[in-house]
Fold each of these.
Amino acid sequence: MSSSPPEKPRSTRREFLAGVAGAIVGLAVGAAAGSQAFPRKITETVTRTATQTVERTATATVTQTVTQKVEVKPWLPEKWDEEHEIVIIGSGFAGLSAAIEAYDNGVKDVVILEKMPSYGGNSIINGGQMGVLSPEEGDSVDLFVRDMYVAGRYLNDLELCRKLAIESRDAFNWLVSFGVEFPPELKIQAGGHSVRRTYQTKNVTGRDIVVKLVEQVNKRGIPIRLEHKVTRIIREGLREGKVLGVEVEVKGKKIYIRARRALIIASGGFSRDIALRKAQWPLLDESFNSTNHPGATGEVLLAAEAIGAMLIQMDQIQLYPFAEPNTGVLDRPAVIPFTSPAYAIYVDKKGRRFVNELAPRDVCANVQIFVVKEKPTFTIFDDAMWPKFTTADVMKEGLERGRIIKGNTLEELAMKAGIDPAGLVETVKRYNSFVEKGVDEDFGKPKMLAKIETPPFYAIPQWPAVHHTMGGIRINTRAQVLDVNGNPIPKLYAAGEATGGVHGGTRLGSFAITDCIVFGRTAGREAAKEPLD
Ligand SMILES: Cc1cc2nc3c(=O)[nH]c(=O)nc-3n(C[C@H](O)[C@H](O)[C@H](O)COP(=O)(O)OP(=O)(O)OC[C@H]3O[C@@H](n4cnc5c(N)ncnc54)[C@H](O)[C@@H]3O)c2cc1C
């Protein structure tokens, strides 16, 4: 009997490799087609490797690798519509400070781009509290930095913190030299600070500072271009080379503005960017109010990331525990709970205290959201103490609007505010006994400066709202933007709330102004040293 020969595996090698290579070339052509002709300075050679299973048989799997070099060109505009030496994104404390300092360091061609119809961002609605190193109060650089570090849950970049401490007094004096008034009697010790180091502007608002900075900007002839929204940052290479300029949306049209010396990002935080904040911390959905202006969104941060900047600590988002409960607005009465904790107490609707009032903001907000749970809570103080932490004007306006509630007795106050009267009376009695003993047996508040005993009594309703985004663009002490490898991106600077690392996990109240002025000035000075292209 004859038997048929055993079957050999069939050779089925197909034209597979040619197909893979063709796909790679197609990719490269597509990328190049999207780019424009001018002024392409750098092209990049990218090595793409494709490993493909060529054949499977009963006995073997054969793989083969194809390597092909293709040229990928970055997108660049066909022409620049405008050129300036220094271009600044954002007209808040950081952007305005950078502009003035760049000009005063010799660069006369500076422009500020602002997407909103008015300037000032969060800075102009800010509460006007500025933390400044105060050795006369027992302060020191180490104590200042330690307070930041403890509040920041040890996430802060300590070099940036030290710079803030060391340069804070100079930043304060710089503002005073422009006519900003910080009445000494309004200096307070705020939550999370170990000493009294927080000044307040005369009218308890950041507008007092913005107005004076804008005066200086105008005096120097620096234009603030309103309704100019930056939509893209343009760099020589895909993630390499110098930063060249920006794409800007103006009345629905795109224009291209070249920054011949440097670009400074001072576009603020992203508390109003619900999609971005939810991506970082899903709890913070639409149900949370925000204290911020509507333009506090993160598109510039994402544009910076797209050209290679490193974003850090983006999930470190601060809630202001004392915003107006229904709207989230941080109006002037809402500043009182923040400036008063060495005197006042916070209570829930049952009249019970729930926290050490001098604790940092995240502690207080978390207790409200996760422990108290019922909105609102209240700050309680008396008639003898308010001149220590606010002004007659703020009290008058708050009382007239009904934002501050007044009662001739604690019971009357409680009834008007919707607090349990017996609970409030009992809590105040107990708290006053702690003040006498000098020991807070319930929450360990380290400083209790007065009993709550002089009528009339006051209550301010409060609830957490999204307030400050501590994360953002990574910078060094020269305000240079760092890439993912820790190297400065040539001709790119950033300052203010757009940056991350200064405040770590929680910003201490009143250190944002200091941060914006110190690093805004640094960015302006350093940008002015860049060579002109
Ligand atoms: C109600 C409130 C009260 C506060 N009170 C205090 C306080 O008392 N003390 C303190 O230290 N801190 C306080 N803060 C925090 C502090 O005000 C901010 O951190 C600070 O103002 C940020 O300044 P900035 O210059 O970085 O950004 P901003 O002042 O927000 O300015 C950024 C600007 O960039 C613009 N911009 C954004 N994207 C673009 C784009 N794509 N193109 C062009 N422009 C763009 C924005 O419209 C905005 O005008 C407060 C914050 C709020 C909201």
Amino acid sequence: MRGRSDAKKHTKMTTENKDNIELKPCPFCGEDPELSTEGACIEIDCCVSMSRQKSDYLDIHERLQYDNVEHKFTDEVEKKVLDIVLKEWNTRHG
Ligand SMILES: [Zn+2]
């Protein structure tokens, strides 16, 4: 009897930030961009840069979860925004 096939999931990490989100190399030069998620905005920097306000992607309830001491949203909200912004980056074309 055969065991279950050992399906390994390889998640390529190009950032040390959050689990299972992949930041693809820059579509213009192929380098790994720099990701900054501090404060109220997310920035992806390379030869081009992309800057997004986190609150643009959040509803009113999520916006209220901003922690003025830590200067960030809850992990859940942060992850949601990061996910959207990374997808946006990952689908841009040179
Ligand atoms: Zn680049």
